[in-house]
Design a protein that fits this description.
With 162 residues, the protein is mainly alpha-helical. It has seven helices and no strands. Helix 5 runs antiparallel to helix 6.
Length: 162
């Protein structure tokens, strides 16, 4: 028997928000999170009882992120003044460098890192979400982590990578 949807939101909401932040950045993450759960609520009654709810939600979040990227390409960006970038509520302000480094990754690498390392999805499910092979998902995640280690040192004094 399925849990009430409110429990699903409480249990998986933080994970979906982390994925949205990693893939989209802090400005668009909350809207994508909301859209993810609105879509999930509509589809919830038809979801099989034995479905992997976390993977299902990440798949929906991935699709919402793709929608945001497509919409951003169609909309002109104002450049007169840059907005201040607030720190994410559950991340200290000094993590902004890490999120900036994550945003610079190519989309497949950024998504593979988010889905595998933030959510903990196995590479088979990451591949299914991204539409490729397990090996390609594993390679994209490994390349993304290698790039982050190279460009974002965890300990600046010692130059150690995360």
């Amino acid at each position: 028997m399925k849990q009430p949807f409110e429990k699903i939101v409480a249990e998986h909401g933080p994970t979906v928000l982390r994925v949205c932040r990693a893939v989209l950045g802090p400005q668009d993450a909350e809207d994508a999170w909301s859209e993810t759960f609105l879509s999930a609520l509509r589809a919830w009654p038809d979801l099989p009882d034995d479905a992997n709810v976390e993977a299902w939600l990440v798949t929906i979040a991935h699709r919402k992120a793709v929608d945001v990227h497509r919409a951003a390409k169609r909309n002109p960006l104002p450049v007169d003044e840059l907005p201040e970038t607030p720190a994410a509520p559950d991340h200290p302000a000094d993590d902004r460098g890490l999120w900036a480094a994550v945003r610079l990754l190519p989309p497949k690498q950024r998504q593979a890192v988010a889905y595998h390392y933030l959510v903990g999805l196995p590479y088979a499910e990451v591949a299914q979400i991204l539409g490729g092979t397990v090996e390609a998902a594993r390679r994209a995640a490994a390349d993304g982590i290698r790039t982050l280690r190279k460009h974002y040192p965890n300990n600046e004094e010692e130059g150690e990578a995360p």
